[in-house]
Amino acid sequence: MGRKRDGPGGLIISLYNIAKARDRSHYETFQTWHRALYREVEATSVTPFAPRAREKALHAVLVILARHLVGGLTTNVQAVDTYRAELEELIAYVRARAEAIDPEEASNVEDALRSFLQKWIDNAPNYKTYWNDHKDRNFALMLSAEKAAEMKARSGVYYGLATPTPNSMRNVEPGTLFILKEDLP
Fold first, then answer.
1. Where do the domains of the chain lie?
2. What distances in angstroms separate CA 16 from CA 2, 11, 73, 165, one per listed residue?
3. How far from 68 is each of 90, 113, 139, 177, CA to CA, in Å?
4. Model pTM?
């Protein structure tokens, strides 16, 4: 496939090789294939701003916005209090977005973000980096949810300063190990 882009529109040209069975199949069934493009795309697995999504990943939205839009926070996790006003503006922006999508959840979104921001400010002197799943993970703002679950499985509790954060929102719930006993009465 080649793509030529002129201004706001674009042109996609499909170049098929008759010697390749897959290309020939796409040509012969083009309309069916084109109508089904999204069949292979995974459906959204979470509802934006739902309680579990907020709990698991909303804080990451604030961190991403902060690192990309607030120059002093690009690499300096400890400078959070210096940029509190800018972070409050980002919280207002996310709240407005939530208001447009799910008005009933807007205040919960704002509360969750303010709570995370306060935790970040309170613990800023302890943080050395934004993310670390390795040796000094207790000195990071975030760590993977999988690593936090692993730590909790070993000790029964996770007490780190880092906020567990999923690497993907495809699976917002951790897997569960089970043993199937076949000889039950």
1. 2-40, 51-165
2. 11, 16, 48, 43
3. 11, 17, 21, 38
4. 0.67
